[in-house]
Automatic annotation (TrEMBL):
InterPro entries: NUDIX_hydrolase-like_dom_sf, NUDIX_hydrolase_dom
Residue span, Nudix hydrolase domain: 39-170
Family: Belongs to the Nudix hydrolase family.
Protein name: NUDIX domain-containing protein
Lineage top rank: taxon: Bacteria
């Protein structure tokens, strides 16, 4: 609640999504953060940029079969959303020493199959900078990982990923 309450959305569309996420957490105070919440749940993801900020590390998601940012579900041991985003990015990339930028970059709500009837990921998206010369390791959650020029993302990907990468590249820090 604190992160979403304090975050300044970059535009009116993101402000609407921010309010939807807050409303979801108010309506599902006991479980809105967790995968068990069939109505939807908060997730955390990260656009990992190389040290020069000219390339982004994307995963060919094993279930979705599209190139996406790294991320996933919050776990009880995660003290913060930023911590969840960094944990997921580190686990899925195998890269130690990622430097997470402190504020979310954007929010994205998308349908998923976490429950038989369907559900929603309410994704809080961050950006991280990889150390110079970072090398990734493909995890079990990915069919592949790859560095791609930020101006030439692979197919298939989607508009939310393109917006996330464009916003991440433009951030200070």
């Amino acid at each position: 609640m604190r992160v979403l309450s304090e975050w300044r959305a970059p535009d009116a569309g993101q402000e609407r999504v921010r309010r939807e996420f807050l409303r979801h957490l108010e309506e599902h105070a006991a479980d809105g953060m967790w995968r068990a919440c069939a109505a939807g749940h908060i997730t955390a993801s990260t656009a990992v940029l190389d040290a020069s900020r000219t390339r982004v590390l994307l995963t060919l998601h094993a279930k979705v079969k599209a190139w996406l940012q790294l991320g996933g579900h919050c776990e009880p041991g995660d003290a913060t959303l930023a911590g969840a985003a960094l944990r997921e990015a580190t686990e899925e990339s195998g890269i130690a020493g990622l430097r997470l930028l402190p504020e979310p970059v954007q929010l994205d709500r998308h349908a998923v199959r976490c429950h038989p009837q369907g559900s929603w990921h309410l994704d809080v998206q961050y950006a991280a900078i990889a150390p110079e010369g970072a090398r990734y390791t493909v995890s079990d959650e990915s069919d592949d990982l790859g560095w791609f020029p930020v101006t030439d993302l692979p197919e298939p990907t989607d508009d939310p990923v393109r917006r996330l990468v464009a916003r991440a590249v433009s951030l200070p820090g």
